[in-house]
């Protein structure tokens, strides 16, 4: 392990997270209370590009104190994601941004969808765009996603945007899950569903779990239907 006050020695990799000043401020406060940087050095590759620890470096720089670092000649960009997966300090969006920059298959599609619909969280978006309708958080962390159902995701997103005009909880995760499932159901009629919502907007209330949301939306859709009633799991 080495230490230095020459912060210019270090470089960034494009797929690193952007520095979060709020996080830097928290680190600075912790360091002022008890400087443990020697026990938690930054990790750099053979070119001194930061693999892990850019926020610790920035905190040390702003405080004007020595930064400790470990240099690994065999480290590569993929290790950024791997290290943070173990440490659990990256959000799902951090992984999406990382793999988008690294041009991992499908992540440009996911990023565009999230950019087009910022109200939709990453987990719900991954469910919508995948053929099996599952939120594969491990796949996102590993840089592997299924985007074959992207057209479905955009249809659901357009409906949610419309629904938000009449229902404050349209972007609740359970609501998005139910709506996405309904759109996949054979016999589902989007325009008919809209008309039923407009006919009985007061039937839409805040619920406490997925089961209640499912029952509520099915009741709205199936109201006064004697046949072709929908049901979902």
TrEMBL record:
It comes from the Bacteria. It comes from Olivibacter jilunii. SMART domains: ParB (SM00470). This is ParB/RepB/Spo0J family partition protein. InterPro entries: ParB/Sulfiredoxin_sf, ParB_N. Residues 5-90 form the ParB-like N-terminal domain.
């Amino acid at each position: 392990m080495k230490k230095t006050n020459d912060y210019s020695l270090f470089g960034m990799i494009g797929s690193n997270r952007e520095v979060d000043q709020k996080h830097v401020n928290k680190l600075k406060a912790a360091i002022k209370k008890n400087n443990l940087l020697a026990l938690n050095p930054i990790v750099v590759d053979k070119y001194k590009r930061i693999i892990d620890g850019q926020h610790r470096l920035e905190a040390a720089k702003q405080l004007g104190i020595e930064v400790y670092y470990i240099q690994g000649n065999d480290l590569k960009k993929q290790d950024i994601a791997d290290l943070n997966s173990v440490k659990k300090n990256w959000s799902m969006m951090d992984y999406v941004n990382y793999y988008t920059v690294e041009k991992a298959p499908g992540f440009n599609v996911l990023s565009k969808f999230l950019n087009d619909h910022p109200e939709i969280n990453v987990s719900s978006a991954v469910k919508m765009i995948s053929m099996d309708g599952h939120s594969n958080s491990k796949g996102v962390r590993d840089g592997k996603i299924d985007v074959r159902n992207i057209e479905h995701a955009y249809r659901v997103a357009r409906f949610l945007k419309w629904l938000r005009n009449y229902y404050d909880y349209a972007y609740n995760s359970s609501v998005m899950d139910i709506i996405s499932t309904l759109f996949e159901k054979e016999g589902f009629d989007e325009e008919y569903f809209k008309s039923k919502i407009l006919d009985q907007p007061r039937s839409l209330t805040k619920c406490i779990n997925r089961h209640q949301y499912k029952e509520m939306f099915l009741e709205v859709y199936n109201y006064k239907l004697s046949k072709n009633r929908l049901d979902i799991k």
